[in-house]
Amino acid sequence: MQYPHLFSPLDLGFTTLKNRSIMGSMHTGLEELPNGMARLAQFYAERAAGGVGLIITGGVAPNRAGCGFEGSALLESEAQIAGHQLVTSAVHKHGGKIAMQILHTGRYAYHAESVAPSAIAAPISPFTPHALTESEIEQTIADFARAASLAKAAGYDGVEIMGSEGYLINQFLVKRTNQREDGWGGSVENRQRLAIEIARAVRAAVGNDFIIIFRVSLLDLVADGGVLAEAIMLAQALEKAGVTMLNTGIGWHEARVPTIATMVPRGAFSWVTRALRPHVRIPLIAVNRINTPEVAERILADGDADLVSMARPLLADPEFMRKAQAGLSAQINTCIACNQACLDHVFEGKTASCLVNPRACKETELEIKPASLRKKIAVIGAGPAGLSCALTAAQAGHDVTLFEAGPQLGGQFALAQQIPAKAEFRETLRYFSVMLATTGVDVRLNTRVMPADLAGQFDECVVATGVRPRPLKLEGADHPKVVSYAALIAGQVPAGHKVAIIGAGGIGVDVADLLLNQHDTLGEYLANWSIDPELTHPGGLLPPRAITPQREIWLLQRKKGKPGAGPGKTTGWIHRLNLQRHQVHLWGGVEYLRIDDAGLHVMHEGVAKCVACDQVVVCAGQESVNELHEQLLQMQQRSHLIGGAQLAAELDAKRAIEQGMRLALQF
Known about the structure:
The chain is an alpha/beta fold. Helices cover 31% and strands 17% of the residues. An 8-stranded parallel β-barrel has the order 3-4-5-8-9-10-11-12, surrounded by 7 helices. The model has no long low-confidence stretch (mean pLDDT 95).
């Protein structure tokens, strides 16, 4: 077997997990929708059918104060059991196991009834929490036990107690948020009391033959956070309290250190789990940026953990485990950790999905099934939209020819993979390349087609010819120091030493990232973000590391405000912070005047300035390439326009891939 450790069963005594994979907890937004539990059931059923060992649901509050927002998922009465039974029955039908996460958000709650150990507001919530009284703490413990009992009645195989990531239990553990002077604060024993008593109460409520996972924070990544010695002490107490397994928690939500985004090295935190392993006898679960079976196997083979948790990778491909076991790893649709359709959606109050797999959380809506009529389809352009359309059409049984004028698949996606923080995009292009071949798509690279080559030859034509950089309309735009972002990223021109970037959207941020010349190994990542490899400093943080920039960079935008975040809601702060740490000049409200030998002349903050640069990179937007579509329509050929060719706004692979899939399902 290719991955013997990953596919080794785990005997828990009263039950056995068929392999060492866990689908980690992830809120989808389906939980709160009308008929959402039925959709959630189908979502988890596909993952169970795909072979994952154990599924952990998104967080479910044990009481109303613990809800993340008004109306969020809650289990506090028998009347709510029926909806959960839809989920558990669907998973069990496919031979899977599922645990419900019990999550009390504490001061992270986005509502006026939030509670916490102390009345200290979180930096990511506008609400100041009410400090729990001792009687309210006792009731909260009882509420956790009641939720666990109801979960068992609903058919779950276990529960996960969320004790990390800065939520309520974690808030009690550290002095940063626990400034109590009673029996629930002060000493480490008092601060750990809530976690231990919840574990004991839950075990008493559910009996022995029921999985209890406790997610324990091993690396808070916030000032005045915990240290490893305290985590070991808690883990040992939790083991005595009857916890079945310990899951690893990495980083609070308010931490200013990236822990799951694509710039984080794969498997970056398994060493943290390994540090706990000698001190407990129950199984440990490693988490974060484990997105291939090779990474999972290495972590298990090295003895870092007993199981691996993968949430977003199973969003990207529900058949991840089945494909790995069958020797078809090349066919796995790999998570690229972009966060654009999963976490970004959740934090915007939308239903989660996946950039590389638009079917995620839409399984009942986007169903790929054999077409009633086999058609001959031409797709012109092999960017994200064209690739998605061609593959989906072929999976539905159509005869598909994919034309690409360039020498490789990917379009703007292929360009983006050259950015260090987007190297994972290579996995998406690998997936499409393999799957196009597997489904029999006729791929013709270096082929620029004319309307006459298509009209009358195909039942449907799909024009996905993408975009081209918008020309810069500015005096001196033809100066030798002016280059397009495409030429720079592709390596057609060398990067300058003093570089001004016109445009601070996603592409401008990518160019700045490329110019920083970062290629983080694990050691470099830990050092760059001041993470303590010894886990002895509070919160696991070292003093900030000084960075000496290799280049002087200006990132400029016309609109006012702070440039440098890019389009990602949950990753924008990482980009901006990284640029600031590398001393990139971030200028908003810029009026561009001209370019000459002296540099780029602008008006900034009401003052005329000259950016003394030796290179100006133009990231001033794109325009659609859609002439072919109009020509085909004039020739009475059925033609459809998708992706950037239809709308050249901020480049959006998420929209392009879903649009391509939806169109293909209409044929």
